[in-house]
Amino acid sequence: MRPHRLILRAAAVLLSLPAAALLAQQPQAPAAGQQGAPAQGQAQPQGRGRDSVQVGVPEGRAGAAGAGRGRAAGPPPGPAPRSADGKVLLGGATPTEKGVWLPGGGVVATTPAERAAIPLQPWAAALLADRNANQLEPHTRCKPSGVTRPFLTPYGVEIVDLPELQRIYIFDIGGPHTYRTIYMDGRTHPANLAPSYYGHSIGWWEGDTLVVDTTGFNEGFWLDRRGTPHTEKLRTLERLTRMDSATMKYEYTLEDPGALTGLYKGSMNLRWEAGTELFEYVCQQANYASELMVGGARSSVDRSSPIVP
After folding, report:
1. Number of structural domains found in the chain
2. In this structure, are residues 187 and 202 in contact, taking their beta carbons and an 8 Å threshold?
3. What residues make up the domain containing 273?
4. Does residue 124 carry a pLDDT above 70?
5. Phi and psi (nearest 5°) for 226?
6. Could you give the count of Cα atoms lying within 13 Å of 81 in the half-sphere of its Cβ?
7. 23 in helix, strand or coil?
């Protein structure tokens, strides 16, 4: 029988099968938000052996509510790792040990009382209400986000301390896939800063606590996932203290006379996820929330700025 006739016969057999039977043969991708569904742009996790390094979404991606989900309970955390000169480390105990920091307990402003405690000016409170009604978050649209927002992603952050360069880098793994620089060389803030997503950060050590002073923010990001607004007058003071091998305490103070009526202080815990490292992430690829990124077909969404800055 000629090849083209074999192809036609096979096509006829397929067309004669019920649609349900054909669908049953296809691998069904889980719906967005279901267990095992890939998040927007995420790389598929590779196999993970006992001593291998995971590349992909951390196992503890459920954050505070699902801490440890899908993982066997490990031993209690040990003391914070330190370098040979006794300095506390913000990453692995050795240069080869991989890991990321995930959101743990005490996530920013989760209860009505905590939200009400943020001293927003009336216009800022109205803007927050509008953002809650229209979830068009810049971070979801692949824009970098400063202050607390990177610490609230399910992908985690990677902190790299390079003493020889007198700099610390915080990598925002998911979404914009960008990084923040903290200068540790004793410099001060420049007199005329061009506003940016991460601002200009200078840091120093107070014992085992990294203290970071930042100014020079733009207004193109949300302070947190719920949409707390700010202005270019924002200045922040952050404190990161590694409590043990598995816990980092993150404290912050917001000062913004343009949006707040006074200082606001908050804190949360970060949880160390060993064995996970930075992975390739394209924000637009396989995006299950495209309407949040570009606004779908609605004409009210601002598309005047590029998706990736």
Report:
1. 1
2. yes
3. 105-287
4. yes
5. -85, -10
6. 14
7. helix
In sequence order, what DSSP letters do the residues of 57-120 get, joined into one string? S-TTTTTTTTTTTTS---PPP-PPPB-TTSPBPSS-SSTT--EEEEE-SS-TT-SHHHHHHS-B
Q: What DSSP state is assigned to residue 217?
A: B
Q: What is the pLDDT of residue 257?
A: 97
Residues 93, 244: Cα–Cα separation, whole Å: 12
Examine residue 304 and state whether it is found in any structural domain, yes or no: no
Residue 36 lies in a domain: no
| 208 part of a folded domain | yes
Angle at 277 (CA atoms; ends 39, 50), nearest 5 degrees = 100
* pLDDT tens track for 128-163: 999 888 777 888 777 889 999 989 888 889 999 999
Q: What is the pLDDT of residue 232?
A: 97
Q: Which residue has the tokens 């890991």?
A: 99
Of the pLDDT bands very low, low, confident and very high (cuts 50, 70, 90), residue 11 is very low
For position 225, what pLDDT does the model report?
A: 85
